[in-house]
Design brief:
This protein is mostly helical and 425 residues long. It contains 15 helices and 9 strands. The protein is 40% helix and 8% strand.
Length: 425
């Protein structure tokens, strides 16, 4: 934008209008040196007002060599400055320990700054497999969420058969795969099924992931993994595909090669922020959240890089298979067969929806008899109330849309399962 433009005098150099924090922090502001800490610990400081009225700190009785050059004429010297945030590095006991250590060990400070700067610029680029160029570092940092190379040399069909014979339900297989893959965030390329971090803290204990059910399912997958050579990450995704194939009779694409991350490769605290407090696809919404479930669902969809039709078909397919943490929104009598019953029933005009007082769920009453016939959440009903989403829902509710519904679901499902497969994209 043009926020930098100014009509005051020349509008640049010493005439630049700033936020009010005016000055340099060191005597050589264009050179890398230890001057910042030298000044911070070398002087006593006093609080002063800048010409713009901001509060900054100036050194008391600074030496000439510790003054900064003027913005236009280097022969003119001006005071250096510190903000209150800078003074905290000196006055706060814990910050002071760190700052003094860096002051006394400038080489270590330079290395630490280089690491922090590299992290700042690359934090949203995803794992190292996405880096290109001659300066890609050989070592991996834990904040890159490293994943060891996966194995592709195993019999996928044999693994599929073991999964089918495991006595797991379609719902357990599909829900576990979704729980693993849907942590992906397109905003910073974190999360996803690769690494199978759903078996590690903190993901294994997240409420949305049904820890007791998850423990049972992962125990079976670990056995299959050890017997076949497939990674647990691959087994999780393949099992989700198997569940969908059982429900649709259609083949779901699968690309092996995911790896299994270890606890040492996982910064557990950094994964806390990936915990879903709401997941409309699983009809999960924690109480006490000041954002509506449908808004949270839209945010989840954009983090997964989904289009509106992909979001719609995925949610409808999940409900068709009986996946709903709250139990609401299940509009079919056969949750082992994927049909478009969900959309057909959702758009039924013979019922009237009324809130039941919970703030999130609604009940449908037959307009003729007054009987309560079903229940749903805001995440369900938005596909009938929002004009754009309703138009998509009407397509999938059509009597001749069964094949399209299943085909589109498989396509969108495959997209989510492979969202973090940067090694094959």
């Amino acid at each position: 934008g043009f926020g930098w433009t100014s009509s005051y005098a020349s509008g640049k150099g010493r005439d630049t209008i700033t936020s009010g924090f005016e000055g340099a922090w060191t005597a050589n502001p264009t050179q890398w040196d230890n001057g910042y800490f030298d000044l911070l610990f070398g002087y006593e400081w006093e609080l002063v007002d800048t010409p713009a009225g901001a509060k900054v700190w100036h050194a008391i009785n600074p030496k000439d060599e510790d003054l900064a050059p003027d913005a236009e004429d280097p022969s003119i010297k001006v005071p250096t400055m510190m903000t209150t945030a800078d003074m905290a590095l000196r006055e706060d006991p814990e910050y002071r320990k760190i700052s003094k250590h860096f002051h006394e060990n400038p080489d270590e400070f330079a290395d630490a700054f280089a690491e922090a700067w590299f992290k700042l610029l690359h934090r949203d680029m995803g794992p190292k497999t996405r880096y290109v160029g001659p300066e890609v570092p050989s070592e991996e940092r834990i904040w890159m969420d490293p994943v060891p190379a996966g194995n592709t040399d195993y019999d996928v069909e044999a693994v599929s058969e073991k999964i089918k014979n495991s006595d797991l339900t379609i719902q357990e297989m599909v829900e576990t795969a979704w729980a693993s893959a849907s942590t992906y965030r397109h905003s910073d390329m974190r999360g996803g099924a690769n690494g199978a971090r759903i078996r590690l803290a903190p993901q294994k204990d997240w409420e949305v992931n049904k820890p007791n059910q998850l423990e049972k399912v992962l125990g079976i997958y670990e056995t299959i993994s050890s017997e076949t050579g497939a990674s647990i990450a691959d087994v999780i995704v393949l099992a989700g595909n198997v569940g969908i194939e059982m429900a649709t009779g259609k083949k779901v694409p699968f690309t092996p090669g995911r790896g299994d991350a270890t606890e040492d490769q996982t910064d557990a605290a950094s994964f806390d922020v990936l915990e879903p407090h709401s997941d409309g696809f699983r009809n999960f919404h924690k109480s006490g959240i000041n954002v509506t479930p449908e808004e949270m669902m839209l945010d989840k969809a954009q983090l997964l890089n989904l289009t509106a039709p992909e979001m719609t078909v995925l949610l409808g397919g999940m409900r068709s298979l009986g996946i709903s943490s709250s139990g609401h929104g299940i509009f079919t009598s056969d949750t082992n067969t994927m049909t478009n019953d969900y959309f057909d029933t959702l758009l039924d005009m013979s019922v009237q929806w009324k809130p039941n007082g919970t703030g999130n769920s609604y009940e449908a009453f037959d307009r003729s008899t007054g009987d309560k016939v079903r229940s749903a959440t805001r995440s369900d009903l938005v596909f009938g109330s929002n004009s754009q989403l309703r138009a998509i829902a009407e397509v999938y509710a059509s009597s001749d849309a069964e094949d399209k519904f299943v085909g589109d679901f498989i396509s969108a499902w495959n997209k989510v399962m492979n969202a973090d497969r940067f090694d094959v994209q």
